[in-house]
């Protein structure tokens, strides 16, 4: 995105932030988009900002539908691309062509998003599928296979970045409780049944305020209470204190990627019932 477009985006966001609480009415008596555009072209730039703000939900809807996920206007660059495309549609709309403005704007937004995805994947080696090229009603040539592959790669990159950010966030949270990933690596149980037992204990602690409040508020694991409810020895809880605390924080927080990882890699679920009487309890 060149400097002119960046400046344009900054100006738009300023305008929108100022007038977002006072958007034009959308009732049946309101001016049509086509009539509003005609007024904008007469030089009413303040009306342009108000018009863009009014249709911000529409821009988000089109962008999210194209990306097949929710788009955050602040965090996701795709929204910036769509915002600029909507403004471009205002300047390029021709009512004589017989199309509604919103239909034309959606075409422009989708076209710019396709360009953006392809540009983001410029280092990705793709095979051309020219036999599948097709033209839309605006004579725009696109390739559905190439576009789908680019979108898939773009989504993979996004997930990778989200996962990285999630790991960094969780590491920072653990640090507040004096726990590091190296601590967890050292203390991680090697046996499947042991992992199953500790996961069950962690979920138990995360489900009871009397057990998780001391962790969240004081950074203290209620060893006696947890051992009693889980039916294991105090020594088991104490030896795995950091590991159990980390599991509680993970279960209670918004960490979908990390939770999915442990869900798919943990041991079979182990019941805590009767474990206190079992002579085979694993000593960690």
Morphology call:
elongated
Distance between the termini: 55 Å
The order of strands across the largest sheet is 1-2
Strand composition percent: under 5%
Number of strands: 2
Q: What is the average of the pLDDT values? A: 76
How would a textbook summarize the main sheet?
Answer: 2 strands, antiparallel
Structural class: mainly alpha
The poorly predicted ranges are 18-29, 123-132, 264-284
- How many DSSP H or I helices? 14
Radius of gyration: 27 Å
The percent of residues in helical segments reads 55-70%
What's the helix-strand series?
Answer: HHHHHHEEHHHHHHHH
Describe the 3D structure:
By secondary structure, the chain is mostly helical. Helices cover about 65% and strands about 0% of the residues. Strands 1-2 form a two-stranded antiparallel ribbon. The longest helix has about 35 residues, at about 145-175. It is elongated and about 80 Å long. Mean pLDDT is about 75; it is low at about 20-30, about 125-130 and about 265-284.
Short characterization:
This protein is mostly helical and 284 residues long.
Q: Which terms summarize this structure?
A:
mainly alpha; disordered C terminus; 284 residues
Please specify the SSE layout and strand pairing.
Blueprint: H1 3-19, H2 33-40, H3 45-54, H4 56-67, H5 77-92, H6 101-120, E1 134-135, E2 141-142, H7 144-176, H8 181-187, H9 192-206, H10 209-218, H11 223-230, H12 234-239, H13 241-252, H14 256-265
Antiparallel strand pairs: 1-2
Helix pairs in contact: 1-3, 2-3, 4-5, 4-6, 5-6, 6-7, 9-13
């Amino acid at each position: 995105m060149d400097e002119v477009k960046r400046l344009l985006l900054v100006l738009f966001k300023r305008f929108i932030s100022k007038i977002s609480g006072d958007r034009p009415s959308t009732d049946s008596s309101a001016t049509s988009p086509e009539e509003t555009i005609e007024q904008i072209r007469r030089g009413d730039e303040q009306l342009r900002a108000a018009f863009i703000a009014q249709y911000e939900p529409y821009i988000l809807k089109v962008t999210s539908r194209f990306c097949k996920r929710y788009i955050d206007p602040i965090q996701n660059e795709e929204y910036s691309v769509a915002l600029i495309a909507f403004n471009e549609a205002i300047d390029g709309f021709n009512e004589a062509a017989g199309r509604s403005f919103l239909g034309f704007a959606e075409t422009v937004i989708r076209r710019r998003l396709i360009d953006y995805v392809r540009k983001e994947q410029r280092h990705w080696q793709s095979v051309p599928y020219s036999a599948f090229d097709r033209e839309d009603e605006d004579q725009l040539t696109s390739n559905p296979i190439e576009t789908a592959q680019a979108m898939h790669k773009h989504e993979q990159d996004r997930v990778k970045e989200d996962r990285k950010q999630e790991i960094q966030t969780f590491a920072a949270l653990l640090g507040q409780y004096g726990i590091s990933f190296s601590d967890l690596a050292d203390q991680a149980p090697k046996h499947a049944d042991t992992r199953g037992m500790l996961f069950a204990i962690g979920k138990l602690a995360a489900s009871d305020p009397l057990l998780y409040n001391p962790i969240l508020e004081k950074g203290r694991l209620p060893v006696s209470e947890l051992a009693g409810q889980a039916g294991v020895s105090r020594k088991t809880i104490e030896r795995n204190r950091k590991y159990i605390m980390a599991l509680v924080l993970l279960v209670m927080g918004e960490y979908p990627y990390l939770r999915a990882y442990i869900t798919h890699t943990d041991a079979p679920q182990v019941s805590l019932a009767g474990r206190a009487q079992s002579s085979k309890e694993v000593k960690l």
